[in-house]
Design goal:
The protein is built from 9 helices and 10 strands. The protein has 276 residues and is of the alpha/beta class. The protein has one domain (2-272): Divalent-metal-dependent TIM barrel enzymes (TIM Barrel, Alpha-Beta Barrel), CATH 3.20.20.150. The strands form 2 sheets. Strands 1-2-3-4-5-6-7-10 form an 8-stranded parallel β-barrel. Strands 8-9 form a two-stranded antiparallel ribbon. The longest helix has 21 residues, at 78-98. It starts with a strand and ends with a helix. The protein binds zinc ion. Zinc ion (ZN) binds at residues 139, 171, 205, 250.
């Protein structure tokens, strides 16, 4: 079991490695640019080269890049779709350059067009992306508003139609909020397996939930302080498949102190069940 956090990149990729060292992350996730802006940050070759060298020394794996929130991959405005495709292609190209393994995307919002049309838009957009060595992980969602990907049925429909390098990022808070009670993990696993093969799941976003199971309201909480609780995380980590995946926290933080505590809690559970 590898444990890491979503780290800031605002002060440059070398600073990100300092955070990684401070937190003793085995793996980590980043945004390549401001997640709430269409602007892409220009990064020079030197910064990327230095970053790769430092990573090589530490063997952090996997490095994950997360798509900015601003993109809706279920969009149906042709002009916007083109813009999104170009944006993601550029991000994936840079992800490859920095040595990332996964690119996480949110399956978007249907905005009143209905889930069927929304999923079709997602499939069409994913099919249009350029080929690369990066695996795209589609993240499950809480089902807030018109968001797609809160049912594992959505994933099986997408995967059936696409012959690309795809997988799933399993967010624990989103799974819980969309109605999967992680405290009964064996049942959750069976429910997921009705629709997809577990081997599609490559990464865990480890977040506790401020809101109830089935709330469809996306609010992350510190590990053990939310409705999933330590018991819920024990159930996941104990599991022979899930407990051996990389875990990355996206819990609230004002400083790195909170990340450190959350990582320590997960590490203790991992040690307790022989996963570390
Ligand atoms: Zn997430």
């Amino acid at each position: 079991m590898k444990i890491g956090a979503h780290l800031w990149t605002g002060e440059g990729l070398i600073k990100t490695i300092e955070y990684c060292d401070f937190l003793k992350c085995d793996c980590f996730q980043i945004f390549l640019s401001n997640p709430r802006s269409w602007k892409r940050k220009k990064r020079d070759k030197e910064e990327i080269k230095n970053f790769k060298q430092e990573i090589k020394k530490r063997e952090n794996k996997p490095i994950v890049v997360h798509m900015p929130y601003i993109l809706n991959i279920a969009e149906d405005n042709k002009k916007l779709i083109k813009k999104i495709i170009n944006f993601i292609n550029e991000e994936i190209e840079e992800s490859e350059k920095i040595g990332a393994e996964f690119y996480v995307i949110h399956p978007g919002f249907h905005k009143g067009n209905g889930e069927k049309k929304g999923i079709k838009n997602v499939i069409d957009l994913l099919k249009s992306l350029s080929k690369s060595n990066i695996k795209i992980l589609v993240e499950n969602t809480s089902g807030q508003g018109t968001s797609l990907g809160y049912k594992f049925e959505h994933f099986s429909t997408i995967f059936e139609k696409i012959d690309k390098n795809l997988g799933i990022c399993f967010d624990t808070a989103h799974a819980f909020q969309s109605g999967h009670n992680l405290l009964e993990f064996k049942k959750v696993k069976k429910d997921i397996e009705k629709f997809i093969d577990l081997s599609y799941i490559k990464l865990i976003h480890a977040n506790d939930s401020k809101t109830d199971c089935g709330s469809r309201i996306d609010r992350h909480e510190h590990i053990g302080k939310g409705k999933i609780g330590i018991k819920g995380f024990e159930e996941i980590i104990k599991d022979e498949y899930f407990g051996n995946l990389p875990f990355i926290i996206e819990t609230p933080k004002l400083s790195l102190k909170e990340d450190k505590e959350n990582i320590e809690i997960l590490r203790r559970i991992g040690e307790k069940y022989g996963k570390i």
